[in-house]
Amino acid sequence: MKRITLLFVGLLVALPVTARAQNREHQQLFADIRMLQEQVQRLQLAINALTEQVKSTQKSVDAQSGETRKGFADQGVSIGAISSGLKSVNEAERDTAIRVAQLNQEIKSIREGLGLQQTTLGQILDLLQKQPGAEVPTVTDPAAPKPAPSSGGGLPPSPSSYYNLAWSAYASNQFEEAIRLYEDALKRFPDAVEAPSARYNLGEAYAALNKPKEALAAFKSVVTLHPDSDEVPNALYKQGVCYEALKQRAEAEKSYQAVRTRYPDSAAAPLATAALKAMGVIK
């Protein structure tokens, strides 16, 4: 009986101790849960703040991207305007170079013609002075074609008289007559000092009559028969023009390049450069 009573008393004492222990564990668990909830709330606040920063940064990036795209577009417009301006300047420069070269050729031809006429007149006057009975010829319009020199009489025909006659027809735009007279003069006096210019003018006369094949042959003869003549650069350039007219693009390019390589300081060099630009060979 005493043992039962003691056991019962012991149980009554142990129960409050166990209950207090479980209560402490529950309190600790609740405290831990509250801490975790507070941490979650802080994390959520941090996430919300980061989200707002990302949104602000994205807006700034979008604005900068828009300005950059607008800047590129404006630059593209400016570059296009500059390119158009450069193209116009290049075209004007090419036209000016072509005109200057043409004027140089015309001036050169006029000077050569005047020089030939003066030389011829001087030769005639010298011969007339040596022959007192000879009549002094009457000077007529130098631009009008003259009759062919006569081999009879006291004065022998000079090469200059034949070439001057052909030049007069050429200067008067009588190209068919000029061709006939130049070919006759070249046949009679192929080694005369006037021969290089005569062959070049022969090519120009054929070109004026829209005969590029015949013109090409005349310009080639200048290069092959008179390699040291001042007419060679112009003849090479004209070869290129004839090749283009004959649809022989590769040969035309070779002729233009030959002018730029062999005669870079000649009046024909800028013309050859402009022609190559027009062909798209160079920029």
Summarize the structure in short:
The protein is an all-alpha fold and 283 residues long. The protein contains eight helices and no strands. The protein has helices at residues 2-130, 159-171, 175-188, 195-208, 212-225, 232-245, 249-262, 268-279.
Look at the structure and give the CATH class of the largest domain: Mainly Alpha
Low-confidence stretches: 134-145, 150-154
Give the helix/strand class. mainly alpha
Shape: rod-shaped
Describe the structure.
- There is one protein chain.
- The protein is an all-alpha fold and 283 residues long.
- The longest helix has 129 residues, at 2-130.
- Residues 134-145 and 150-154 have low confidence and may be disordered.
- The chain has 8 helices and no strands.
- Helix 1 packs across helix 2, helix 1 crosses helix 8 and helix 5 (212-225) runs antiparallel to helix 6 (232-245).
- It has 2 domains: 1-47; 100-279, Serine Threonine Protein Phosphatase 5, Tetratricopeptide repeat.
- It has helices spanning 2-130, 159-171, 175-188, 195-208, 212-225, 232-245, 249-262, 268-279.
- The termini are far apart.
Write the layout of secondary structure elements.
Layout: H1 2-130, H2 159-171, H3 175-188, H4 195-208, H5 212-225, H6 232-245, H7 249-262, H8 268-279
Top keywords for this entry?
Serine Threonine Protein Phosphatase 5, Tetratricopeptide repeat, 79% helix, 283 residues, mainly alpha
